[in-house]
Amino acid sequence: MEKGWLAVLVPLAALVRMMPAADNVLRVDYCVIGGGPAGLQMGHLLAEAGRHYVVIEKSNISGSFFARYPRHRRLISINKRSTGKRNREFNFRHDWNSLLSKDPRLVFSSYSQELFPQAQQMVQYLNEFQRLLHIRVRFNTLVTQIRRQHETKTFLISTNRDFSLQCRWVIVATGLWLPNVPTFPGSQLLEMYDQVSVNPKEFHGQRVLILGRGNSAFETANNIYGETALVHMVSRSRARLAWSTHYVGDLRAVNNDLLDTYQLKSLDGLLEADVRGMTLRRSRGGKLRVRFNSSLDLELASDADSFALRDAYDRVIACLGFKFDDSIFHRSTRPARCRLASKYPAVKSNYESENVAGLFFAGTLAHSLDFRRSAGGFIHGFRYTVQALHRLLERKNHGVAWASRSLPLRHLVNTLLVRVNQAAATYQMFGQLADVYLIRNNNKSEFMLVPEFPAALVGRLDELAGHSGAGGSVLVSLLEYGADFSGPAKDTFRPDRATGDPQEAHRSNFLHPVLYFYRQPPTETDLLKDDHGTHLLPRPDKTHHVLEDFLTQWTAPTAHVLPLRRFLQSCLGRDLSSGSARGDCFVSHLESKTDLPACFLDSK
Ligand SMILES: *[C@@H]1O[C@H](CO)[C@@H](O)[C@H](O)[C@H]1NC(C)=O
Ligand SMILES: *[C@@H]1O[C@H](CO)[C@@H](O)[C@H](O)[C@H]1NC(C)=O
Ligand SMILES: *[C@@H]1O[C@H](CO)[C@@H](O)[C@H](O)[C@H]1NC(C)=O
């Protein structure tokens, strides 16, 4: 009898051990998927706030993307080790690689001497960041499924390990990993960016066609064009040069040698055609022949005897970028795609999935919000949007108000000057993250600065930041380029590109501060219209442009400070001259290490 019981019990116990869902479920408040730069940044902020979190990483290291990409191992993010200034906040304006922390060891310039660092140095930096800040990462853990449980409003995350997780909130920071693979007749003959040889010698004397026109395509071309017979590049749209679009994700000068060898007729060349209309076949000699199904462009009419791609190629390489991999989501929990940029998930301005409540995106996956407009797809931008997401979560889930600072009103001009000259978040995430000043009319002697708040959410500041502007006025400060200055065909070197006349400050083209004044706290309903359709901000009562400056030093007494003070005085109906320090105070402050200049706080 007893023997019989045992015979049943032993296999049952073995079965239970194999089914982690039964008792091996870790209950966690915040599950961060992905231990790259965005996941680590979020992990660090959650740890600092004392939250119950875990970062889940499929690989055995942090930032494994950078262990493989970019293939040719040179980053295009600027590592400017010297700005001539000692102010850390200012220096972060020109540091595109560091994450945010208070640890002075974790500044990227300590890890690389190069202006464009090696990708392996990023891997080293990220792993040090994780280790020194004790960020809780579960390595070697592959998420196999994420499913929202509607009854409990939690997420169940299955893994390839002997545990699963039940999470109240999920933050997906997995980056863009899935290569875009074109499908057309013969596309199986393509070599892919993620696999192709990076040894230039293997391309010696070859004719190479590259599909794509982003940085990965040009990086590939740059690596081999010294060995090849020629490199041709085909893509749907014209080259977008970062220096004319002011978008760091567009083609960067460090990658664009092929533009020279094309325009100087040195056999290389660029063409525009939609690769979806392409056909590739291998000729009897083993070479690859290209045709296009139809084209309006005569150069590309395959049946014309002058068809541009009529000579066969040795290799055709696809470098068409990456997209979001949503295969880990159960179909009931699959996030919708962004309509305008389908490689990204659709996110709301609070970084939450458009269709799955409680699911958030951090890092490059939230870039649809500022795609081709600002730096949210890159470390120097998303370290700040991750921080913004963290502050939104702190407010919503734990009732913690957004970081803020209250100061006497006579310091308003000075505070504004310090911020526009120093703050890195608003500089990197220009047009997106704003400094918001609440000026309370019921207590005329004080204002509150709510820094680095998403401009698109300014109409919901009270709810989302926990700071009410009720009964007062609101000033929003952004950095912006001129409305009609950026684009692939813009002549950003034209003689009248910059203005030095304070009367013409509103015509400033280069990045400059723009202030939006609201007599009453704005609401979401009345959005400002601009040349591009709809501006992120509600319609203001008054606007002021601070004149652009060649040195990005908005401290000139007559050109910058005086018009700014007059604008604020006319908005607030008060004299603000008593607290205003001289511009040179700020210039000297930027040389110093301190947070706030003495001339700023001492002036009465
Ligand atoms: C991670 O795994 C790779 C093999 O996949 C190995 O070469 C490497 O040494 C491992 N690194 C660490 C830090 O464990
Ligand atoms: C021809 O190419 C275009 C893109 O240029 C594509 O959209 C279309 O489907 C192609 N047509 C055929 C019949 O393959
Ligand atoms: C006005 O501001 C001062 C200075 O911060 C503060 O002491 C006082 O309580 C405030 N008064 C009201 C009515 O909010």
From TrEMBL:
Domain of life (superkingdom): Eukaryota
Pfam families per record: Pyr_redox_3 (PF13738)
Any coiled-coil regions, as ranges: none
GO MF annotation terms: flavin adenine dinucleotide binding; monooxygenase activity
Single GO biological process annotation from the record: ERAD pathway
Keyword Oxidoreductase among record annotations: yes
Gene3D superfamilies: FAD/NAD(P)-binding domain (3.50.50.60)
Keyword terms, alphabetized: Oxidoreductase, Signal
Alphabetized PANTHER family for the sequence: FAD-DEPENDENT OXIDOREDUCTASE DOMAIN-CONTAINING PROTEIN 2, FLAVIN-BINDING MONOOXYGENASE-LIKE PROTEIN (AFU_ORTHOLOGUE AFUA_4G09220)
Protein name: FAD/NAD(P)-binding domain-containing protein
